[in-house]
């Protein structure tokens, strides 16, 4: 390879400079020759192209930055395609948040009824990208950050032959937490990781090869702000912060209902400032407000993958991959989020030899929902949509399903061509 | 065998005559020579012994009926030991019902927090019975009807070597429904049955070998009063009536809260009349009120098992048995409720070749709860008790668990020796 | 059903009257209204039609017997289609026996290189029958007796949607042995059965529900003439008689080489007398020589299946069925020979909960061969043919494979259209 | 860690300097502070201690070298314990080679009847070492090179809690072959590896992430001298060279029978020269004859493991590890030889997602033998010894087993305390 082409789909996102920042830190390792920015929103794309030119210069990146609204051009010959799209934008996200809340259900863009609708809007677009990659960049890697990444990755792996690695910053949370709490460098922290995206559990944490002490465990666990520390200590394994929706449901629903704005509404406002800063032609720094935007750690994970693959360096990473038996109690066709060995041949799941006894049933329940939701999303099948919600531990009741389904379809109808509404 | 000894543990129960009734219907098949009634409640035992003598005579049963308060005598040399005990009586049942309800949770004697407490009270007693049988009637069969039968059977199979078959009338519900709705005799109705006790799903129903029509399916499904017919039609498989607690949770909780009495309180009152009738020495008929008592079908199932075993007749029956791979997504050590082949060698599970795609995750979630609850019950382990409730789809939230646990332990403390409270 | 149509494919076979004999014994149970005899050999078909008419009369069967050389007519509307064909006849069988023997390898019509060639000749014809049944008798059952029945059944189940049950008299051998050795009636003998056709092992034998004694085990085992009794006692499980080719290979090869005739040649001679007897219009008795022809027990098994299905009687039987997880160490797609529950819905495998520790590897090795052989047979793929022989424990060596393959293809070329030789 | 203690058990072996040589090459990475040489043969130990002192100096290793005949001292506080023992020496090896050959069976020290006897002699000694390590160096790693490494590792993992990693140079053969044939550096060569020690198959070879061409495959495969190239091309996967005993059995047996000496006899002679060279106090070079001794690559593998663990570097390596589901068709308790991720937490097997269709049955058959042999070795059980040989594809026939067993036991009786002969 003579220097790589790195394509960003949804490049108008305020997140894009984080990827450049990480490329800057890895410029000795990663000879990125071309960054291709793609978006359907020409205005944001223009702003971001300008900013990225300035930012790359500041970072000392020797790279050609280009922008396009042609998906074919964007994908053609790409070595890596990073997808960070939001179909329907934050406008639809706010609906994902508000509709379930009316029924006192969790309203949230990655799980529950809201997360499912985001999957329904996103999956057809992602399948189109993946199918084009099969032709235009058959050896390239699709690196997905678009949520719900587990469902998106399952859809792409079940329905296309594109190479896809689904990521979430959650895969390195224990490293981040151990660093923050104990000052331990990433390389010394190891752990077992079992589950799905946003539905996973971390066990057997070691520092430099030895098991953490109880005190260290507690300090690391305390970094997980979203789940009660006493609960984590009881579990003995650390749940993903997203388990808050499951273990503290009513409390979180009450908090949401009391909040003046949803997260989506907050982000919408925040983005005004952020884009204003990006558009300022004298500015070549990431806007301060960006830190409040979330997503920290993803660029690190994504570029870690690029390094492992491009430079053929054996690296353990948490990736969303087809199960095929790695997690014995889940179907072979399921996408799971587990530890993998990554190198130039791609990723291979480590076998999960020890299933934590206190949480596998919940993982199974959510995977059951996910598989039905993926099929509903691809087939545009309202019956499967209902079955998916019935299978979801945060919905489950028929009374909810009956009312939610027409409302959710109506609120998303312009983004659901597969349902022929 | 020279005529069998049939022991009833908990024989003071108002249900006992149902077993005799079924023996009467099968008297040509089953040479029951001795019925041994055992109970710790001498008064009820006395009443029931008297009634059973009269009732057996009326049924034309050529059988010796005896009563004892010695468990050893009861079990010694028994061919079959039917267990139908209620540790703590309906007094404790009412607590199982009321405590969860205070938190707007399902309060119910077979599942949820209430069902777990019933398991905690029952399992130590059942293990004692099973361990005694290992010595006193090593070739005998323990036929369990005591709820929660899935947890009881799992405890006995994991912690003893006694022969146990756990039953529930639910195994023949589709036959009962098809008969009621369509007039089809039992022998012509076949179906696949997958899941756990009170957490199971019926699929592929056939009548005389041919799949039921959509109209027939609907008529059969409509007999399941407790789950919405539209929901069943959507599922395409028939859930156990106990799925009402999962699919109609809020509705049922509201109904319970509005009810003047709990089921336990109702039964307590009902039993006054029932026992008065049993005590009447001129009476040799089952009291009319007994029909309202529930449990219909169990005696039929239990005696069907006795016939299959005693007479070595290949018979397909639904039994609670150790999984060992029969249901691929559940642990080998789990007890599952599935179709089995029964004959004199006992029962062997049919392999579940087709897992219904819309409900396996919920089954897994409940099994995860069950295994933790069984271990908590046997070990008297409060941490596992909390983990069990966290794993239970009807509880799950930490806020509930924190509050429920001390209250439940306090309310049951005289029946939980293993917890050393 | 108003009386059944029973079709025999390969009805010219001398075995046909055994089926009628069994129908005679079951005439109260089984209202066979029409027996349709089909063969491509008009002469044998004519002889057999005549004999069957006389024989049925003698047996008191109230049945219409017809003969046809039209496969479509034979299959149309059939309730049961019994297949007992021999593609290429005993002429080809003799080649199956002799060619491997030249290399000091087992030459035998059901396993080894010879058995594979029989599969290659047979499978295309069986697929044609099964495909026609999908249209002409979609609810009918194909009952296969044609060897190698495991491979034939796997081919039909993997490549068609016909209902097929593959049988072998081996499924009832332990019953036959216990009866002969100990005078125990069939109904009292139960056992676990694990493996493949002609590659299976019997364990946990019980008589009337109790485990056999060591002395009884030995007497039963001694009925298996073909495997050394000391070896069986060491194993502790009873291997199929066909395990002689595996455990006594050299001895059997030496015996074959010393024999004046192969089994196929012997049968060819025997059949002259048998058909002469059948052709004698004054004769309405099965020829005495038929007893030497082999196959005893199959008609019993086949009609036992017909009874279980037709009359919807739960019956435990050994059947060749798709594995789908019933035998955990074999692929889901494999056909296995295991205990099943049979009734009007067909057969469901019992889960094999206990894999005998001393023989599962050999079963796996032979199944690996079988799956490759089935694919070679269907696809006409010489590479897979070689891989199949390399995987076969009785061949395995490359030096054999290189030499055998061209010779076997040449010797069978007129019966292998799929290979385009 | 302040520099490591590296213990070599069986240090009198002529192989020992290879380990030092590799330490020399890795001296920047690996701060070995102490090399502890242990052997029961004082003479060889003395020679080797002297040579190692000289050799280490020449290599510029800053290390303390000590020798002991006390196993406790050797193991105490060791970070790594390398085991390379030969119980009974080459004297017994020659018997392993010659006895089976008398029956025209493969006589070989790692598989067949000979390999089993080596396992029987070795396993009790290895269990003693492992049990001592549980106490004396509980965090240390046992790195085993002693053959048959698969059986030894399975015995240690099933019967002790010591940390053991079983190795064979075979794990890097494809890298060695690709380097030799095509000049490709190790880091660029990746492949899937499935099976057992000396019973494994390599598939999906890539060079720098892209699949090898057919021509490259052929050149790499041609480096495997022991298996016919045409056969490898047919298989499409590369078998271990040890598959020669399975795919070319008769040819190899004939070759052995024709050879003037067995491999053991040859090595015995060779070692005279080798030890003379080691004993020469003026010599500080590895003797030339050592290259003919075999074992090339093992020191590289062993020190690669030490590096991955000691320095906590994610590294893909082939290791013998407990299966626990990584290879779906083998028992959980089996030790398998598969790709693993190694770092300071030890090794975790990669899940084998794609089982090669042409060879899994043979792997299963050999694993069945191995598990029976391990149990026979530990329990000293003659029945299991016979079952192991019956399960072995290279023995299998009862006639062989009956004759071999008394002869093998007699020839090894002084080394089989567990059999109480």
From TrEMBL, chains A, B, C, D:
* Record protein name field: 6-phospho-beta-glucosidase
Entry annotated with the keyword Hydrolase: yes
Q: Which SUPFAM superfamilies match?
A: LDH C-terminal domain-like (SSF56327), NAD(P)-binding Rossmann-fold domains (SSF51735)
Name the coenzymes or cofactors required: NAD(+)
- Biological process (GO), any one: carbohydrate metabolic process
Organism per entry:
Blautia pseudococcoides
Q: Where is this site: Increases basicity of active site Tyr?
A: 109
Residues where Mn(2+) binds: 168, 198
Q: Which residues of the sequence carry a binding annotation for substrate?
A: 93, 147
Q: Which CDD domains match?
A: GH4_P_beta_glucosidase (cd05296)
The Swiss-Prot or TrEMBL record describes its family as follows: Belongs to the glycosyl hydrolase 4 family.
Its keywords, alphabetically, are: Cobalt, Glycosidase, Hydrolase, Iron, Manganese, Metal-binding, NAD, Nickel
Question: Pfam families from the entry?
Answer: Glyco_hydro_4, Glyco_hydro_4C
Q: How does it assemble?
A: Homotetramer.
Write out the GO MF terms: hydrolase activity, hydrolyzing O-glycosyl compounds; metal ion binding; oxidoreductase activity, acting on the CH-OH group of donors, NAD or NADP as acceptor
The note on the cofactor says: Binds 1 NAD(+) per subunit.
What range(s) does the Glycosyl hydrolase family 4 C-terminal domain occupy?
A: 193-395
